[in-house]
Give the backbone structure.
Amino acid sequence: MGMYGELGDMTEILDEYVIETNELIEQLYQDLALMRTQISDELVNRIFRSFHTIKGISGFLSFDECTGLAHASEDLLNKIRNAEMTPDQKIIDVLWESVDWFKMFVGDVGNRVEGAYNTSPLKNAIADLLQSTSRPMLDSSEATSAQVKPKLSIPQFAAGFPEDLIDQFVMDITHSESRSQLGVAGKKPSRITEQKRLVPTIRVEVQRLDKLMNLADELVLEKDRLLQLSQRLANDLPEHPTAIELGLLNTSLGPMATAIQDSVLQLRLVPIATVFRKFPRIVRDMAREMDKAIELVISGEDTELDHSVIKAIGDPMIHLLRNAIVHGIETTESRRSKGKSPRGIISLDAYQEGAQIVILIKDDGAGIDPAKILAKSIEKGIVSSHEASNMKPQEIIDLIFRPGFSTTEKITDVSGRGVGMDIVNTNVSELGGLVEIESEINIGSVFIIKFPLRRNTLTDSMKVGVHE
Amino acid sequence: MSDMKVLFVDDSPTMRRIIANSLIKIGFSDLVAAENGVDALNKLKDTDVDLIITDWNMPEMNGEKLVIKLRENPRYKDTPILVVTTRGMQEDVVAAVRIGADGYMVKPFSPEVLKQKIKGILK
């Protein structure tokens, strides 16, 4: 394949290409969505660089359609960068379509048909834009007063599109289905069938949401006090018309306040895909370093969690993945000798179960041996041998969460910072969740992280208060 | 040539793999990879290298700033530097050579071209 074809291991390079291009595509969607409402040199440069990298690496694989389209998109970005063009709706739409095309191409790359990917319509659209825009587009009212500055700035951009800014629909796309189908050890992604979800959204600062949430929490507390007061009044003056009316008011005010609080909490939900999409590369690199064959299977990436949880859940999850790779999945030889498939499987899943969000990190590895855990815990003085004699297997397994247990995590390239399981447990409980383990020798282990769907709003708002 | 230590700098993991495989294919084995200019300068603190191959357009610190920094450093003022650019970026090539790079290479390139380019700047 291409001028690079004379080298042996193309699968590896193609895998790397698919993962990286998918990452760039996600980044491009985010950045282009951002460009609809704001612009900065940094943003334009980043978009340029994403297209530039796609162009560079596609060239080595002789994906000429990719190289050509990335090059054309780069030309548009160059004009924007040099302030010869302002990224209006049309320009961003065309760039967006280019990214859609790349997504389609990369999704098909394992079983692509030569010549089946026509980029001409897009390339022509870009050429038209390049031709038509030889001067910056400011609207007529601004054109008289505003000077055209050589560099783009947010005010200048905004001046061109006051209406647009107000009515702006930012297309927000959150999906990573292509990645979820990407095996760690060379499995090709299958065709993307899921339609992109184009949901009109607006971007809001997190701080504003926090403020709104605190207000909603206070509203609910005050509502409860009002309810108590009106009940007292009803007891004292059961026949008083004002007491009766107040009671009625409470029956409508109560649910309304709770509904406001719920809506605010929903505003803060983010799909866990934003966390999961970092994992294929991490798992693959670690697996390679440990010389183990591991496939990562991801599902449930549309499951939504509070953004504060999303922000903080990545590290503990990476630690659990690392644990599964280093201690869970056996070497290929060891798996063969046990009659298992040589390739280990780690699966990630997230879903809602009643009032909880559940995240599963499951491996089909060696499992946790209670006898070994117990011996080590006694040796480390975590439990006395007397206590140990009464412990059930599950209680013994849970000992790995005790501080001081995980000292075997040596600081190597793979197992990294030598953080123990107790830290994972602490991190998760700080977020209001808990971690459970189910394990069976030679079958594997499941780490189960659970978060309440409704956060404990009182303690949370107190926490927010402390942080500010 | 094959016992030389080579530092290659590129923000793209795919490019790093391609460059590493190419270098191995043409006989190098002592390789150091860096993700950008900052990372490269950090890696150079602990180790001396005989040849530097760097991408031009990178986040954090781009190829241009890296070459300038290297040329300012007495330890690296004479180390051969090969800059990797893409087609249609002639201005980059001119800039690279002006600030002290020894040669440039246009993506995509075959291992054979890489070999010739390295030979060229080592003369």
User: Anything to note?
Assistant: The longest strand of chain B covers residues 81-86. The radius of gyration of chain B is 13 Å.
